Amino acid sequence: MRFAVLGSGSQGNASLVQADGPGLLIDVGLTPRVLEERLGRLGAGWDQIGAAVLTHTHRDHVARGTLGRLANRGIRVYCHEAHRAALAESGEVHEVERRGLLRTYDDRPWLTGGGLRLEPVEAYHDDAATFGFRIEGRVGRGRSLSVGYLADTGMWTARQADALADVDLLALEFNHDVELQKASGRPAFLIRRVMGHRGHLSNEQGGELLRAVLSRSRPGRPGVVVLLHLSAECNRPGLAVEAAREALSDVPRRIEVHVARADEPWPDLRLDRPRRGAGQRRSGRRLVRVRRRVDCPTWF
Fold first, then answer.
1. Which CATH number fits domain 2-299: 3.40.50.10490, 3.60.15.10, 3.40.1650.10, 3.40.50.720?
2. What pLDDT shows up at residue 286?
3. What residues are paired with 149 via a beta bridge?
4. What pLDDT is attached to residue 184?
5. Radius of gyration, alpha carbons of the chain
6. pLDDT digit string (tens) for 220-262?
7. Could you tell me the pTM of the whole model?
8. Domain boundaries, the chain
9. What is the rounded distance in angstroms from the CA atom of residue 267 to the CA atom of residue 186?
10. Taking the CB of residue 255, how many other CB atoms lie within 10 A of it?
C-alpha cells in the first residue's frame, strides 16, 4: 500500500493512497499543472488515479481548475453533501456532475472503485464541514493495511482517537507552535482563529492526539507517523518533531516519523505485509520502505 504527500500546507494540499487498484487523491488543492508534475516525480500520472475525496472546500484543498481536469479525465470526486453548496460556486464542478462523476458521502464507511474502504472522521475547522479519513485496502491475499489521515481541525476528541486506532500509518496535523503563533505579528483575529477550537492543531495538540491514538492501538501500530500541514510562518520542522518525540517517549519500540513538505512530494512510503528476509527490521512493527529520500526520516 502506498501513501505519498504531494503537498501539505497553506499553499495547497493533496495526498495519494493506492493499494492494488487505482489510486485515490485526498484533496486536490494543487493546480492541474503542479499536481501532474508532482505525480510525475513519483513515477505516477493521471492514468493511475481512479478517484479523489475532499476533506472540505477551502481553496488550499480544492483548486477549482483541478476539478475540471478530473472531469476531463473521467475521475470520480467524492464530497460530503454539505460541500455541494460551496462547490456549486465553481463552474468546474458542474462538469463533474454532468459527466456523472460526483459522489457524496455521509458518516458511514464506503468503498471506492479502487478497492479502498473509507471511513469519515469528523473534524472541526471554521464553519466548513470538514473530515479526516480512516482508509483501508487489501494488498494481494494478505490482511488489509490502513492509513489514518486528519488535518484542519482545531481540537481533537476521543471519538477521533478511537477511529484512528490500530492504523499502520498515521498522518496528523502539527500546524503551529503556540509561541511562534503569538509572536507572529499576524492580526489578532487570525491568531484567535488558528488557535481556536475550529482552527488548527498546535504541535502540542498534535502530540496529545498521537499519544491518545497510541494508547488505543495494539503493539506495533502505527509504525509510521507523518506530520501534516506545518505553518510556514508559525512552525519549524524541528519543533513539530520534538512534540512528536515527547508523545512517543514512552513507546517501547521504533516508530518512523516524517514531516510532510509543502513545496514538493514528500514523503513517499510503501506499507508491506510482514515477511522474513534480508534487510527486514525486527522491531515488532511493519516493514516500511521509503521509495525516495529527500531527507532522512527520524526514528524514535
1. 3.60.15.10
2. 35
3. 133, 171
4. 97
5. 18
6. 999 999 999 999 999 999 999 999 999 999 898 889 999 999 9
7. 0.91
8. 2-299
9. 30
10. 25
